Amino acid sequence: MSKAYDVIVIGAGAVGTSCAYHLVKKGMSVALIDMRDVARGSSSHCDAAALLSDKQPGVDVALGYDSIRRFLELQEELSNPFDLEQGGSLTVCETEAQVELGAEYVKAMQADGYDFQMLDKYEMKQKEPFLADDLPGGFWSSACCSLSPFKLCFAFVDEVKGKGLDVFIHTKVTNILLDDKGAVCGVDTDQGRFTAKNVVNCAGVWSGKVCDYLGLYFPVEPRNGIILVSSQTAPMCHQKVQEYGYLITKFQTGFKQDPLVEKYNVTMNIEPTEGNNVIIGGSRNFTGFTEVADINVIRAIARRAIRFFPILKDMNCVRAYQGMRPYMAEHLPVISAVDEVPGFFIAAGHEGDGIALDPVTGQLISELVAGEKPHKDISEYSYSRYKGKGPKA
Amino acid sequence: MAERFDDDMLVCRCEEVTVGQVREAIRRGACDVTDVKLRTRAGMGLCQGRTCEALVQAILRQELGLPADKTGYSTPRTPQRPVSFGTLGGDIDE
Ligand SMILES: Cc1cc2nc3c(=O)[nH]c(=O)nc-3n(C[C@H](O)[C@H](O)[C@H](O)COP(=O)(O)OP(=O)(O)OC[C@H]3O[C@@H](n4cnc5c(N)ncnc54)[C@H](O)[C@@H]3O)c2cc1C
Fold first, then answer.
1. Predicted TM-score (pTM) of this structure
2. Where are the alpha helices (DSSP H) in B3-52?
3. Which atom of ligand 1 is nearest to the CA of A48?
4. Using CA atoms, how far apart are residues A276 and A268, in angstroms rounded to an integer?
5. Closest chain B residue to A280, measured at CA
6. Residues A113, A248: one domain?
7. Pocket test for ligand 1, best of A61, A206, A240 (most atoms within 8 A of CB)
8. What is the spatial distance between Cα B33 and Cα B12, in angstroms, rounded to a whole number?
9. Which of A308, A327, A346 marks a domain boundary?
10. Which residue has the least CA distance to atom 49 on ligand 1?
11. What are the tens digits of pLDDT across the range A315-332?
């Protein structure tokens, strides 16, 4: 049998690598186990944004802001770069009605103390000269960041590997082991057994399957999204830009727009990357566990993007990829101990916010595993919301 | 492969990645084509790895002593060659 660890972290995506890093920082020995490799799941098939402007007022935006603050610290703390840039983000409204809704949203965010500003047509064009001429206005949020999610995963791992962290790739967890008191004592994998008194489930869209090993109900589902990558371009977009409808589709369905686009649940978001290209989204569809991108969705995304940035029409797309968001119906991740199984923790179900909430999730899990009081009130993220629920309860 | 490439030789012309940068990525833990790509951008450009993939595989074999079937390859993605957004967005099955 291999050596005993303080903690086993299942899944080396953005969430798992952050948990592993923050646990090691607390002085614990950690085995990070992934069935594929570091950053091969959702965390390398996504956008690169830590936004405030897609959060809801209240605890959602507060946690998002906390994470951004922590990202700025991590940029100093980690030896390897993850391309963090606090460039702000622009939300574009397509109609006057959206401008009115946007203004209410901005007011609520300002009341919470965040730097949000309404922009009229001309102010907006100043920020993004290539936007279509007929767009009536939008709003700006200065704190939003972009970063490279997979470089972030590598940076966490590289920082503490061999200094408290052991990484096991191509190793699939196949069961979670309990002692005679019903507490966690290790995991079985297809590469052998690992021993630890604590296990953190960071398996993203697969975390429901990991919970199945313990008979725990965890209704996470893949909500898939496609991203289009342009060829290199002279600057045509200067910050993260999304249409106001993006916010609507995140939290509800049935947003009325171009019927085709509506059919494929597509809204425009675009961001420049450090590779001098732009990446363009996006869609939100329940198409199961697959990374194959539907050509009709790809086309709808292209059409929607041209609606906002007509210049794209003659630019080239070199690649499209699909990623799976770990969706939960409540739009809240679970960052929690599981009372039913001492030593078992879950950090999963972040849907479209696994990157944005990455640092704070790792920090919170390290506090929970260490038995400390979490630095934020996280009762909303408790697993107890599923107590007594589900087919297995 | 007997010949050892110079560190400043270009591997990926589209993204201007050198042999030295690929070696550095491998030193930091990259162990297949996708890993090198994520860490250096080699293969993310206009040609999507058509030119550099074989070179990256060769460097992985040299540095890590990997057999040819263990260096991996990058996943083929739509569209298979560059196409304008206008063409893509043009006609969709309604
Ligand atoms: C199109 C798109 C755009 C997005 N844009 C953003 C954005 O701008 N900002 C943002 O914050 N979020 C965004 N997201 C969401 C973000 O990608 C996810 O929330 C995040 O990547 C989830 O990270 P994770 O670590 O939980 O999951 P993953 O990165 O998927 O990691 C889970 C890991 O667990 C491993 N695993 C699973 N089961 C096992 C097992 N049994 N044994 C061993 N290993 C196992 C997997 O191999 C995988 O590596 C986007 C998502 C998509 C699809």
1. 0.94
2. 19-27, 33-40
3. 8
4. 19
5. B85
6. yes
7. A206
8. 12
9. A327
10. A41
11. 999 999 999 999 999 989
Residue A393 has pLDDT above 50, yes or no: no
Nearest Cα residue in chain B from A258: B94
Over residues A14-60, the pLDDT tens digits come to: 999 999 999 999 999 999 999 999 999 999 999 988 999 989 898 88
- Residue to mutate, A321, A350, A358, A361, ligand 1, most ligand atoms under 8 Å from C-beta: A350
Whether residue A8 is contained in a domain is answered as yes
Pairwise CA distance, residues A360 & A350, whole Å: 12
Query: Which pLDDT does position B2 carry in this prediction?
Result: 52
Contact A231 B45 (CB under 8 A): yes
A319 shares a domain with A239: yes
Structure-derived torsion over alpha carbons of residues A382, A330, A326, B77, reported in degrees to the nearest 10: -160
Count: domains in chain A = 2
Q: Please answer yes or no on whether A319 and B48 come within 8 Å at the CB atom.
A: yes
Instruction: CATH number of the domain at A104, please.
Output: 3.30.9.10
Beta carbons of B22 and B56 less than 8 angstroms apart:
yes
Q: What domain range is A374 assigned to?
A: 2-45+150-220+330-386
Residue B81, token pair as written in the block? 């060659």
Please give the distance, rounded to the nearest whole angstrom, from the Cα atom of residue A159 to the centre of ligand 1.
21
* Inter-residue contact A83 to A147 (CB < 8 Å): yes
CB contact under 8 A, A151 and B38: yes
Q: Which residues of B touch A258 (CB under 8 A)?
A: none
Residue found under tokens 């993939």: B53
Please say which residue of A312, A327, A342 terminates a domain: A327
Residue in chain B closest to A276 (alpha carbons) equals: B15
In this structure, are A247 and A263 located in the same domain?
yes
- Say which of A157, A300, A314 has its CB closest to residue B84: A314
Return the structure tokens found at A266: 């597509």
Task: State whether B28 and A259 contact (CB < 8 Å).
Answer: no
Report helix angle B33-40 to B53-64, nearest 10: 110
Cβ atoms of residues A232 and A276 within 8 Å: yes
Question: Would you say the CB of residue A291 lies under 6 angstroms from ligand 1?
Answer: no
Between chain A and chain B, the number of residue pairs with CB atoms below 8 A apart is 106
Relative to beta strand A334-337, strand A344-348 is antiparallel
The Cα–Cα gap between A321 and B48 comes to 13
Domains annotated for chain B, with CATH where assigned, are: 1-69 (1.10.10.1100)
Interstrand relation of A4-10 and A30-33 (parallel, antiparallel or unpaired): parallel
